[in-house]
From TrEMBL:
Role played: Involved in the biosynthesis of p-aminobenzoate (PABA), a precursor of tetrahydrofolate. Converts 4-amino-4-deoxychorismate into 4-aminobenzoate (PABA) and pyruvate.
Assembly information from the UniProt record: Homodimer.
EC number: 4.1.3.38
MF terms in GO: 4-amino-4-deoxychorismate lyase activity; pyridoxal phosphate binding
Gene3D superfamilies for this protein: 3.30.470.10, D-amino Acid Aminotransferase, subunit A, domain 2 (3.20.10.10)
Single biological process term from Gene Ontology: folic acid biosynthetic process
Protein name: Aminodeoxychorismate lyase
Amino acid sequence: MVLLNGINTQQIEIADRGLQYGDGCFTTALLIDGKPQYWPSHQARLENAVKALAIPFQEWKDLNDWVKKACADIQEEKAVLKVMITRGSGGRGYSPKGCSKPNVLITSSTFPQHYEIWAKKGIQLAVLRSRLGHSPLAGIKHLNRLEQVIAKAELDELNVEDGIVCDMQGAMVETTASNLFWRVKNTLFTPRLSCAGVEGIMKMHITKCAKECGYEINEVEAEPSVLEHADEVFITNTLMGIIPVNQCDSYTFTSREALELIGKRLKAC
């Protein structure tokens, strides 16, 4: 299913700046029985992104109507909904001058079933050679994902489920498509994302629930070697939820203490 500004279509203008320059933003939501989970957080992410990118989009009521229209056609118990906002067509070269009609593209796809296997069995990570550059757009889920594409291409050559990506100084940022947490005793650590990476919606909710469960939360700049001292490691995003990590390179982890407590808290909210 594809909706462009609420209309079923498989076509978009070649001149759309999302295609030409990655000029736009997106969010990806888990659908359960046709209902997008954490939708207010997803809309807030889009609102913050269009403001940061100076995209003149204000039609939030229309967007919500189009999301409902897209969800109404989905029959699966679990599915994936992706909402993109581009600056639309116009402008000369990189200049956005004259771009006054943003486009909203909504697509749905099947839920990745391997996430359920990962949640039960846990996964193995590797520290990737690929790096993320520092950016003034850090935290925003904009449409330019070339760094993630390169990281995924490297991951495809390895016999592990996911990989940790560091910044140019060697500090951990995230995995190829999720946020990273590790626990040492009663403290949860997660990479500081002020210079690179994406502020995940599930990360935000997990941070809140972890505090309610009595854990201290520290956002830090840290190299992968700190995982040697971790009691527990897990990764998160809105589709996969919380995934336990069994191993990262030569480091192994067996505890799921925080994961289980926070998971129960999330379900209760």
